[in-house]
Specification:
The chain is mostly helical. Helices cover about 65% and strands about 5% of the residues. The chain contains nine helices and two strands, in the order αααββαααααα. The radius of gyration is 20 Å and the shape is globular.
């Protein structure tokens, strides 16, 4: 039941990440307006791969009986490092929700890249902007595909860094610099909840960061209900900050 596009969905965030690396190390050697010639094709390729992954998922045969028939998810990864008996893994988890969000993120990012090539045409930090945008895209896609909660946390924090870079892009003007700092510190406040949720569920699920394993144990009743509830609330605090919901909404108007 293998499919190349699903098994190799790690390429979808890897390509914008590679574009970021190229612009980071070779940006000053590029012509001023050449950055979008790297960023747009990179995100465009990721968009095509995301579309192919979505089609592959829709065509994927279901397994099970009756109402329990489901398309089996795809999970691949490797051990990042091991400390004592705890394995820190990094990998991808592809299911229906993931392929939908891969399509949405790559499509919106591609449109933003194309629009920015005109909107930012005469900007003095044109390459810097597209490098940040490529890293932003890769970070969001990493979050979507993450099979481990600690991997999701890495992508989450990289999104915060990129938000800071883009909000404060014209830092010569004090209001822009202040807005970037306000967004950074406000969302970091919410991220404390996210980190608490990751830590709480890690221990509640028997010291695992694997999101599927945590979900399976929660559904099977192997984690006390109050711990699942507290973990979910803590994770939601992180989304409150990142999506500018009350009371961590104050950064968005700026």
């Amino acid at each position: 039941m293998h499919n190349w596009f699903l098994d190799n969905a790690w390429l979808i965030p890897a390509i914008p990440a590679a574009a970021f690396v190229v612009m980071l190390f070779f940006g000053k050697r590029l012509p001023h307006q050449a950055a979008h010639l790297i960023g747009i094709p990179a995100v465009g390729i990721s968009f095509v791969l995301a579309c192919a992954a979505a089609v592959a998922w829709i065509r994927r045969p279901s397994v099970g009986v009756g109402e329990e028939r489901l398309r089996p998810y795809v999970e691949r990864g490797f051990t990042w490092w091991q400390s004592g008996g705890v394995k820190f893994r990094i990998g991808i988890h592809i299911d229906g929700l993931a392929v939908m969000m891969l399509f949405v993120v790559t499509l919106v990012s591609l449109l933003v890249h194309i629009f920015s090539s005109a909107y930012m045409h005469d900007d003095r930090r044109y390459v810097y902007y597209f490098a940040a945008l490529a890293l932003f895209t890769a970070s969001m896609l990493l979050m979507v595909e993450a099979s481990e909660s600690i991997e999701l946390l890495v992508g989450w924090e990289l999104v915060g860094v990129c938000s800071f870079m883009l909000i404060g892009h014209w830092w010569e003007e004090q209001p822009n610099s202040d807005a970037a700092l306000k967004a950074f510190f406000t969302t970091r406040t919410g991220d404390v909840g996210l980190m608490i949720g990751v830590i709480l569920l890690f221990f509640a699920a028997g010291q695992t960061f694997n999101i599927q394993a945590i979900n399976d144990k929660a559904l099977a009743g192997q984690i006390p209900h109050y711990l699942v509830l507290l973990g979910a609330v803590a994770l939601f605090i992180g989304t409150i900050g990142k999506s500018a919901q009350f009371p961590l909404h104050t950064w968005l108007p700026d």
